[in-house]
Fold this sequence. Notes:
Elements: H1 2-59, H2 66-81, H3 87-108, H4 112-115, H5 118-153, H6 157-163, H7 177-180, E1 211-214, E2 224-227
Antiparallel strand pairs: 1-2
Helix pairs in contact: 1-2, 1-5, 2-3
Subcellular location: Membrane
Region (Disordered): 192-260
Protein name: LemA protein
Amino acid sequence: MTAVIIIVVALVVILAIALIVSYNRFVKQRNLIQESWRQIDVELHRRYDLIPNLVETVRAYAAHERHVFEEVARLRTQAVGAEGATPEQRAAAEGQLSGALRQMMISVEAYPQLQSNQNFLGLQRELTDTEDRIAAGRRFYNANVGDYNTRIEAFPSNLIASSFKFEKAGYFEVKDESVRSVPQVSFGTIGSVAGEQAPPQMPAGNQSSGQIHPQMPGDQQGGYQQLPPQNQGYQGQPPAGGPPAGAPGPQDGQPPFTGA
């Protein structure tokens, strides 16, 4: 009886320890997700601060691109107003803002003087570095979210997650069509499968005699070319006035046999 009580107590202690360890791990993962998100939020604010200076610098050289500047300003205000929203909502706003910034940088290519402006180049470099840090923080955040959500769905950790109200976290994924789009490849051969050449065609003409063979590299004409019939020896009875039976026929470059 004492042994049974000891075994039961040991099992209860082991389950309690496993419960505490699993709960603490959930708390640690949740805090890590929050910390990684704060790092992303810092870089997003840094980009919000850079955009007005960049727009004003570009406006000095490309004043007639007003619709582009207005779109960037509108989407920046929309992204700033999305603070406190879910990561999915923030990602949607950031994706639209990134597309407007990309359109503005494309319009800059038409102004060589602006591309040599040191102030513009410095702001562009700083914006690029900020976006690189945002991308790195996004990968780190999404990796932590993936591990956390997997534990919430897996057994037996899902029992602890449901008991203590641990909910799944949202991913921060910016939809960038320029990265996800598949490059279009154009092939010159029309009417054939991509990369597959159409089979060679036989030229129109007399095809009743002779032999044909495929065109080989170095030939001057494509498709099949026709070879003249090979000279054969006379068989059977020779024609009147011709050579005797079995005699070889005329060779190239020799006059035909005219008889005796």
